[in-house]
Amino acid sequence: MYKDIATPMRTKEILQKHGFSFKKSLGQNFLVDPNVLHNIVSHAAITKNTGVIEVGPGIGALTEHLARQAGKVVAFEIDGRLLPVLEDTMSPYLNVTVLHQDVLKADLHQVIEEQFADYEDIVVVANLPYYITTPIIMKFLMEKARVKQLVIMMQKEVADRITAVPSTKAYGSLSIAVQYYMDAEVSMIVPKTVFIPQPNVESAVLCLTRKENAYPDVVDEEFLFIVTQGSFLHRRKTIWNNLQSSLPEGKEKKELIQKAFEVAEVDPGRRGETLSIPEFIKLANALYPYFHTPKS
Ligand SMILES: C[S@@+](CC[C@H](N)C(=O)[O-])C[C@H]1O[C@@H](n2cnc3c(N)ncnc32)[C@H](O)[C@@H]1O
């Protein structure tokens, strides 16, 4: 059995051996607690038939735990200085492929097709670089067909916003965008002390599981998100006022919005933060005939 990478001593040894220094701008906070890693991996549905995508393997602390359980692990790492380190630390694990790529620029569809042709289920497990948490999550949610689950560490504050329910301060367009696609649950709060260097904020592990065809009534997903984002333009304003400012200009705009509120049976005096996803769907469907931009 190999020694875990994720202990303070072994991590320091590896960093020293390779002369590695952290780049704050890349969100480099490495985990040094094997119990936290066991816990993260235990929340992911991984068997030898599962393909795992990791974002930001760092020196491989989480990667080795994933490699022991999964059929195959593909890890995106942006920092070229970590490639020789990973070559060293991952040498016992033949089922790990490291891609030297910015995950936000990667063609996920192509990577999945090429790397996971033999795998049906794909799971994303990562201790995310916190400066790009939301764009990474949204990118994987859009990859609808294959990514069934994400178990990801992020700032606790972002996890709270994602899991928030209507009529709470944290509820907003991010809660709706993620909960539209996934069931979301915080599985663990993680203190700063288990990272080198320590981040400024508390962290949480979030478990996102794909909802299968949860909202079949949606007329147009893109338009639904235009409406939800527009509804939170100014949190203190009513949804009516926000939509007056955010929807495209046109003849009889006020009257048409009024009509849509009536059809959707939504009180225009409410604020966006009080509407549930099914209520937003009703409203967006009612606004759609008047305000969507035809696709070319
Ligand atoms: C929070 S660290 C996690 C490291 C390791 N997985 C761990 O848990 O100890 C984030 C990692 O993401 C990498 N990273 C940052 N931005 C990235 C991007 N756009 N694409 C891919 N990797 C990125 C960093 O270089 C770093 O290795």
UniProtKB/TrEMBL annotation:
Positions contributing to S-adenosyl-L-methionine binding: 29, 31, 56, 77, 102, 127
Keywords, sorted A to Z: Cytoplasm, Methyltransferase, RNA-binding, rRNA processing, S-adenosyl-L-methionine, Transferase
Compartment list: Cytoplasm
Reactions the enzyme catalyzes: adenosine(1518)/adenosine(1519) in 16S rRNA + 4 S-adenosyl-L-methionine = N(6)-dimethyladenosine(1518)/N(6)-dimethyladenosine(1519) in 16S rRNA + 4 S-adenosyl-L-homocysteine + 4 H(+)
Top-level EC class: transferase
UniProt GO cellular component terms: cytosol
Enzyme Commission number, as recorded: 2.1.1.182
InterPro entries assigned: KsgA/Erm, rRNA_Ade_diMease-like_C, rRNA_Ade_Mease_Trfase_CS, rRNA_Ade_methylase_Trfase_N, rRNA_adenine_dimethylase, SAM-dependent_MTases_sf
Domain Ribosomal RNA adenine methylase transferase N-terminal, residue spans: 36-212
CDD domains: AdoMet_MTases
SMART domains for the chain: rADc
Gene Ontology molecular functions: 16S rRNA (adenine(1518)-N(6)/adenine(1519)-N(6))-dimethyltransferase activity; RNA binding
Pfam families from the UniProt entry: RrnaAD (PF00398)
Function statement: Specifically dimethylates two adjacent adenosines (A1518 and A1519) in the loop of a conserved hairpin near the 3'-end of 16S rRNA in the 30S particle. May play a critical role in biogenesis of 30S subunits.
Family statement drawn from the similarity comment of this UniProt entry: Belongs to the class I-like SAM-binding methyltransferase superfamily. rRNA adenine N(6)-methyltransferase family. RsmA subfamily.
Protein name listed in UniProt: Ribosomal RNA small subunit methyltransferase A
Origin species: Sporosarcina newyorkensis
